[in-house]
Amino acid sequence: MARLLFFGALGDAMGRERALALPDGVATADALIAYLCASDPVFADAFRRTKVKLAVNESIVDPEAPIGDGDEIAFLPPFSGG
Amino acid sequence: MILLEPHSFDPYAHLSAFSRETGGAGAIASFIGVVRGDRKDVRALFLDHFPGVTERAIKGAAAEAEGRWPLLGLRIVHRVGETPVGEPVVLVTTAAAHRRAAFEACDFLMDYLKTDAPFWKKEISGEGEVWIEPRAKDYADRARWSK
Does A82 map to a domain? Predict the structure, then answer.
């Protein structure tokens, strides 16, 4: 199982946290996004509205970064503080 | 000191503690950001963050500031959760021997917090809730510091 975390607008849309058994063939951050967009219209819609970065185990990664079971994968919309 | 604060805080109490702690500094600069109440019927800001990661990221920016300017200390207090209109949402204060370093480091850290620290900001008004992304101006302000 991978642990998915959603922040900001994505957290409102998806809930803060989900567990997901990564399907066969979903081995990169990019593939996970494509899988979630295809399987969840709420995610697809929220994802289309904003630019999202991914952090795997608390480090921001490139879209082609590998992911696997046991990873914590965080979806981060554009940062906005202050 | 870097503090993510889930409750109302008194920026002036922090400033006096900081000024005691940096006794001997010739210059202390500070910025207090307050939730603006001039638009629609905005009641509050809600700040989301990534526990652990947000603190670490801000520490990284503080270390960068300490590398770029000869600081004698700094303090960052940032609200998380819901902050009502009129209340402080962020305090940045920096101490140095002379004013330029203190001003610039404070400005740098605020620009960092606006666009590059893992926070997400939602405006809560009578009409509903809207997530706010930085404006082009915020990114341009931040870009002034790229080396």
Answer: no
CATH number of the domain encompassing residue A60:
3.10.20.30
Q: How many domains does chain B have?
A: 1
Flag whether residue A77 sits within 8 Å of chain B, measured between CB atoms: yes
Give the tens place of pLDDT for each residue, A8-31: 999 999 999 999 999 999 999 999
Output the pTM of the full model: 0.94
Picking from B120, B122, B132 by the largest number of A CB atoms within 10 A of its own CB, the best residue to mutate is: B120
Domain count for chain A: 1
Kindly tell me the burial class for residue B7, based on how many C-beta atoms sit within 10 Å of its own C-beta (0-12, 13-18, 19 or more). Answer: exposed
Range of the domain at A58: 2-76
pLDDT, tens only, B72-118:
999 999 999 999 999 999 999 999 999 999 999 999 999 999 999 99
B117 and A79: CB-CB below 8 Å?
A: yes
CB proximity A8 to B under 8 Å: yes
Q: E strands along A8-52, which residues?
A: 17-20
- The contacts of residue A74 (CB under 8 Å, 6+ apart) are A4, A5, A6, A7, A54, A55, A56, A58, B50, B53
Task: Please indicate, yes or no, if residue A26 is contained in any of the structural domains.
Answer: yes
Q: Is residue A81 part of a domain?
A: no
